[in-house]
Amino acid sequence: MITKTNIHENGPFRSIHYQQCTEDGKEMSHAGIDTKLTRFAGGWIPTMTVGGVGTLPQYRRQGCVRAMLEDLLPRAREFGWYVSLLHPFSFSYYRKFGYERVADTVICDMPMSALDFLPRYPDLIPLDEAKHPEDILSVFETFSKNRNLTFQRSDIGNFKKKDSVTYLYYNEAGVCEGYVITQIDNYYDGINRMVSVNLIVHEIVYLNKNALMHLLSFLRMYEGELKTVHFRDIGMTPEVDLCFKHFMDTKYDMHPDIMARVLDTEAMLRANAYPTEHGVFVLRVEDNLETVRGTYRVEYERGSCEVELLSDTAKADLTVGATALSKFFYGTDAFCDETAAYLDGVKIEGNTRDFFRAFPKRINGLYEHF
Length: 370
What we know:
Elements (H helix, E strand, L loop, with lengths): L1 E9 L2 E9 L5 E14 L2 E13 L8 H9 L3 H4 L3 E4 L4 H5 L4 E12 L13 E2 L6 H12 L2 E2 L16 E6 L5 E13 L5 E13 L2 H11 L8 E4 L6 H6 L7 E12 L2 H7 L7 E8 L7 E8 L2 E7 L7 E4 H9 L6 H4 L6 E2 L4 H6 L4 E2 L6
Parallel strand pairs: 4-5, 8-19, 11-12, 14-17
Antiparallel strand pairs: 1-2, 2-3, 3-4, 5-13, 6-12, 6-13, 7-9, 9-10, 10-11, 14-15, 15-16, 17-18
């Protein structure tokens, strides 16, 4: 097996076209590796995203994907990556390499009548590329602060979907506080007319409850034209579900989605947003990656921290493997001793209160598919 890598550099944003080939140059497998800035605890961290992984049938089960991951993951500091993300074709397969599920896509379908508790609100403004780029970018920047995994956006093109329209909400003071991207789902009946059925909501982004309620109220302007509303993902916007009132005809379809793999424990510890209260914990990570394993003492107060790498023999409050580490760092649940003990590779040997206080439950999600 011969490995070929074509590395493209745009400042810190490296992208890698990765291939394995036979001795005579025939491609066996390939993958696209990108460097993205993604949200973590309110900040941005450099992230290795893995996409477009494929192996030709005649070369499968020969270790092509394994060879790629075993080559790239140990080079995290060379490329500046703190963590890696991917959409798995198999959760059990990627778990072998230290990845674990940290986010789900939640599709929600409801009849238009399920929004009847809202007033109709028509006064959203269609996105104008010349007038609104700073407003919509600012809204997304603020919205994403509380949502781990979100990709950083710097181009207004990120808010345009094929055959869809983006509408902005401005409050009474003229400040943009949200937007919604909608698309009408219709079909030709084969005789003489176009039949409109479904309103697709690609993205709904808001800075407060008032903005969200106005965005949802705007969807009622499609009454009489469309029968149902299809939210493509409310997994990263749980506040939307909190506002619904009718559920008998509402359907939810959850798809386990994104997996994460920590690549640099110390960098992730330093990137976390800590409480104002004083806290101390000692975390031991058992892993095959040098940049991940180790025993770390963390002392935090007033939002900042000190991280010290201790000897392997130091006593730890909590010992974890790579898969549990991703779930803890990303706050996929409100963990405590009792629930954490159910995860593979977790050993609780001391007081973990300060650790779990430092990594509370957080919202994880991503509108993009990479």
